[in-house]
Design a protein that fits this description.
The protein has one domain: NADH:ubiquinone oxidoreductase Nqo5 subunit (Beta Polymerase, domain 2), CATH 3.30.460.80. The strands form 2 sheets. Strands 1-2-5-4-3 form a 5-stranded mixed sheet. By secondary structure, the chain is an alpha/beta fold. It is 23% helix and 26% strand. A hairpin with a 4-residue loop joins β3 and β4.
Length: 163
């Protein structure tokens, strides 16, 4: 129930900016579901939220205030769309509810603000996502390689990566 009570807060920040397309949408002009409520059993999350990149910090603050913890941050390469998607998974320890927050950024300018000042545990997740996808988390206190060699100039989970 806690995740569903957050829906209106997410709708406010999701509408402040033009959201990027989501998977399954054929054109960038198609209407987007910005905040989707669902049964946990259907997709493993209770609320799926799409926000503009500049609103990721606001989304993290909403979840932190509601006592959700960060579970994971990862990337998705939408090569054909020339975009990268960053997916944040949050869990409420007491209720077990999950919220997924998504945003898309350009492959050419893969930058968005860090949430590591809100969730300390995001530090390593953002570093790993930077290693594998080349996403720059602006304001990150130590965006250095976590798993790849320090001299690595490649991002192995991008679809155009060749070994």
């Amino acid at each position: 129930m806690k995740a569903f009570l957050l829906k209106s807060k997410f709708e406010v920040i999701a509408l402040q900016g033009i959201p990027a397309p989501v998977a399954g949408v054929e054109t960038a002009t198609a209407p987007l579901p910005l905040v989707i409520e669902m049964e946990h059993a259907a997709r493993g999350t209770n609320l799926d939220v799409t926000v503009p990149a500049e609103r990721v910090v606001d989304a993290a603050k909403i979840l932190d205030d509601a006592k959700f913890m960060i579970e994971a941050i990862t990337g998705v390469d939408w090569l054909a769309d020339r975009q990268l998607e960053v997916v944040y998974d949050f869990t409420h320890a007491a209720s077990g509810e999950r919220v997924t927050v998504r945003t898309r950024i350009s492959r050419d300018q893969p930058k968005l603000p860090t949430i590591s000042h809100i969730y300390g545990g995001a530090n390593w997740h953002e570093r790993e996502t930077h290693d594998f996808f080349g996403i720059i988390f602006t304001g990150h206190p130590q965006l250095i390689p976590l798993l790849l060699p320090e001299d690595a100039r490649f991002h192995p989970l991008r679809k155009d990566f060749t070994a």
